[in-house]
């Protein structure tokens, strides 16, 4: 830059009048000139400024366009350097809520740790659960088919009176389930009941030979290694049961999991990843739901056991793949052999035909069907007369019919070997205790050597139970005629009353809360006083009663729970099916779960059904009277 | 904020200039132009062309993203992104200076810079031109 040398023009006043303004202008100009020269001298005195000045003069090179371009680049760089961190809107979690420092401090000051037992669950569910826990029978001996239990006095009136908001709120605010249970256990009396609540339908858990084998194994191996199977946890009895299972099912290999729940929940994500597709039956059990959820695969649910809907969905997937020219990805079809939520069986031949046609791989969860279906207990595949190797992944349980613990997956060599390194539950969980592997082996041997002795009485008892229970008139039996798991659901149209929803107060008008306010309310501490808890419970109830079907289901659950309690008094132990309602994909309607055991005689089964019928009748009468 | 990768990148640029300068028939101007252009080309290929991750750690969450888009969990204007945006600009200014502002080399250098700068703009985050490198979900 050239230092401007402005010179003060000589007296430019028009001849004649000396004006005050022109004198002021002159003075200002002198001042300005002085300022500029001093700044020029100051700049020149900075070391290197001469060099910079020379460089800039050289770089101009008579090319103003280029200089403009470079200046633009320079200012862009400066602006970029000074920009603050920001997440672009196009990224998946683009919009985040900014809290000011004051708000952060406020939240931190108000924070109170949440209680271990949450007090703000849905009051209807909480009240039913509280009542159930307060009256749950406590086993006073082994869980045999004729079990000794301590019966709790039935809490609350057996009247089926619909609770009002206030009563429910009181229950949740003042009674914790644990406290209620502890006070009554001491006062309970011991009775013998027929146990229709255990999945051990063949009674292996109380078989003396089995028990002795378990004790011997305990003496030999201890309770087992604390390690995963791949890291010093595998013992010879594990390998033996895996071999036996593979031979029993006539497949290449089997892999043993320490927990039945995590068997299928870990086998699915071992093969299906993000970018793959899983088509699931929408009545699948919770373990399968969690397994497909953590696989991060794309999920498509089809209507329970509806093969037309399944075919329609498979065809539309194929059409869309063709249309979008998608690169090849893995496709899986997940179904259960015997559905835990309904007790009906999957039509395997149709499924196999569909999976072969649309190039899917079939994952079959035989938790309840292994050991109980088929002429010799080999499961659903034997029941339909197809080889077990036609199923790509067969997942079963050792904790149900074999009365041990754990699960297994059987299939081709490649599929099983892959799981030894990629299945989370195999790699990161402790191995099965060896005594349980030994008892499972023994139970499997029983099934192998004398299937008729076990399965024929089972099937006969199931038939007898179904016909006997049908006489009650109020139950519909969605389960299959050969399923040892029988669900008893209320046929609502046969009842003389309805499970009407409770009187609902209109939801608060301020439903459109800003995301920031709702997030702040999330963090604010849970109410400490009982009164506040009551108010909170009532508020939650108001907010959540947009769903009359859920309300009716909650009432139905209370009805069934009272039948279960009364049945225990009458000498038969059954359970109500429990679900994690908030997490289930499609929560089934409430039901009573009955596992029909093989060890009872026909007469005993009929007596048990009769006791159940009389309990039902009693509760029905009480509810009908209360709701007239 | 100093980082090993920053120092390494600057060292690599030095080495490239040195190597190009060692070739006997290359003039200093050509060496600078080649340094600028080859640096921009390789950094474009590494940051903005290659898709996904070499090893699978999070089940393919970043399968469709270039390395630039994956840096710092897709947050813009982080120190790393600032450094790697300003570096090509600085290199460009150096190379135009050392080629004495000759018009042809200027155009070549500027084109290389433009390609790399536009790719790094926040507005181009997750944008795929002409469907190149697009991963269909």
From TrEMBL, chain A:
Its EC number is 2.3.1.50. GO terms for biological process: ceramide biosynthetic process; sphingosine biosynthetic process. The keyword Transferase applies. Keywords: Acyltransferase, Lipid metabolism, Pyridoxal phosphate, Sphingolipid metabolism, Transferase. GO terms for cellular component: endoplasmic reticulum; membrane. It holds the Pfam family Aminotran_1_2. Pathway: Lipid metabolism; sphingolipid metabolism; Sphingolipid metabolism. This is serine C-palmitoyltransferase. It comes from Allomyces macrogynus (strain ATCC 38327) (Allomyces javanicus var. macrogynus).
From TrEMBL, chain B:
The keyword ATP-binding does not apply. This is ORMDL family protein. It comes from the Eukaryota. It is found in: Membrane. Keywords: Membrane, Transmembrane, Transmembrane helix. It is a multi-pass membrane protein. GO terms for cellular component: endoplasmic reticulum membrane. The chain crosses the membrane at residues 6-23, 30-51, 98-119. It holds the Pfam family ORMDL.
């Amino acid at each position: 830059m050239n230092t401007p040398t402005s010179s003060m023009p000589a007296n430019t006043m028009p001849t004649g009048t000396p004006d005050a303004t022109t004198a002021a202008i002159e003075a200002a100009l002198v001042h300005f000139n002085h300022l500029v020269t001093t700044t020029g001298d100051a700049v020149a005195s900075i070391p290197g400024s001469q060099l910079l000045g020379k460089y800039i003069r050289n770089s101009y090179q008579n090319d103003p366009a280029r200089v403009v371009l470079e200046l633009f680049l320079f200012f862009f760089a400066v602006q970029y350097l000074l920009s603050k961190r920001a997440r672009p809107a196009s990224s998946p979690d683009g919009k985040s809520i900014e809290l000011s420092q004051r708000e952060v401090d406020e939240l931190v000051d108000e924070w109170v740790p949440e209680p271990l037992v949450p007090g703000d669950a849905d009051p209807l569910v909480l009240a039913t659960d509280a009542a159930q826990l307060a009256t749950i029978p406590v086993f006073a001996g082994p869980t045999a088919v004729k079990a000794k239990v301590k019966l709790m006095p039935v809490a609350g009136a057996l009247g089926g009176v619909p609770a009002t908001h206030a009563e429910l709120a009181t229950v949740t605010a003042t009674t914790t389930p644990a406290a209620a249970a502890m006070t009554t256990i001491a006062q309970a009396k011991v009775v013998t009941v027929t146990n229709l609540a255990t999945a051990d339908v063949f009674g292996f858990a109380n078989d003396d030979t089995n028990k002795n084998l378990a004790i011997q194994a305990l003496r030999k191996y201890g309770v087992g290694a604390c390690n995963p199977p791949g890291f010093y946890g595998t013992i010879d009895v594990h390998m033996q049961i895996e071999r036996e299972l593979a031979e029993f099912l006539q497949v290449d290999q089997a892999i043993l999991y320490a927990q039945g729940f995590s068997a299928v929940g870990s086998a699915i994500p071992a093969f299906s990843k993000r970018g793959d597709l899983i088509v699931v039956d929408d009545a699948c059990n919770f373990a399968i739901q969690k397994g497909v959820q953590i696989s991060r695969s794309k999920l498509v649910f089809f209507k329970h056991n509806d093969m037309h809907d399944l075919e329609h969905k498979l065809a539309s997937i194929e059409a869309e793949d063709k249309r979008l020219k998608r690169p090849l990805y893995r496709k899986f079809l997940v179904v259960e052999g015997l559905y835990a939520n309904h007790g009906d069986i999957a039509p395997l031949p149709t499924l196999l035909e569909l999976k072969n046609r649309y190039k899917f791989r079939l994952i079959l969860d035989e938790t309840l069907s292994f050991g109980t279906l088929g002429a010799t207990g080999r499961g659903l595949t034997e029941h339909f007369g197809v080889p077990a190797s036609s199923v790509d992944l067969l997942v079963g349980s050792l904790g149900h019919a074999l009365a041990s613990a754990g699960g297994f997956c059987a299939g081709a060599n490649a599929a099983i070997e892959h799981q030894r390194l990629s299945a989370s539950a195999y790699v990161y969980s402790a191995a099965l205790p060896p005594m349980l592997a030994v008892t499972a082996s023994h139970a499997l041997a029983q099934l192998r050597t004398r299937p008729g002795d076990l399965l024929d009485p089972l099937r006969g008892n199931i038939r007898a139970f179904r016909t006997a229970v049908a006489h009650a008139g109020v139950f519909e039996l969605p389960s299959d005629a050969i399923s040892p798991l029988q669900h008893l659901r209320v046929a609502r149209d046969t009842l003389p009353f309805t499970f009407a929803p409770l009187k609902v107060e209109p939801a608060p008008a301020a439903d459109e809360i800003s995301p920031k306010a709702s997030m702040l309310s999330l963090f604010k501490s849970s109410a400490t006083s009982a009164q506040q808890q009551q108010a909170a419970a009532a508020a939650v109830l108001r907010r959540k009663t947009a769903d009359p079907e859920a309300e009716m289901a909650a009432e139905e659950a209370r009805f069934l729970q009272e039948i279960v309690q009364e049945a225990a008094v009458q000498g038969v132990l059954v359970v109500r099916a429990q679900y994690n309602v908030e997490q289930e994909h499609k929560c089934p309607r409430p039901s009573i779960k009955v596992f029909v055991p093989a060890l009872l005689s026909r007469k005993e089964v009929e007596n048990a059904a009769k006791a159940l019928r009389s309990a039902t009748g009693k509760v029905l009468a009480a509810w009908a009277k209360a709701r007239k | 904020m100093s980082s090993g990768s920053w120092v390494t990148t600057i060292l690599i640029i030095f080495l490239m200039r040195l190597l190009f300068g060692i070739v006997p028939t290359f003039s200093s101007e050509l060496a600078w132009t080649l340094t600028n252009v080859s640096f921009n080309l390789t950094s474009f290929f590494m940051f903005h062309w290659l898709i996904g991750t070499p090893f699978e750690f999070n089940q393919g969450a970043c399968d469709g993203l270039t390395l630039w888009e994956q840096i710092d969990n897709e947050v813009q204007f982080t120190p790393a992104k600032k450094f790697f945006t300003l570096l090509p600009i600085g290199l460009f200014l150096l190379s135009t200076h050392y080629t004495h502002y000759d018009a042809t080399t200027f155009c070549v250098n500027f084109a290389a810079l433009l390609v790399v700068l536009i790719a790094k703009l926040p507005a181009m985050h997750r944008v795929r031109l002409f469907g190149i490198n697009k991963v269909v979900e």
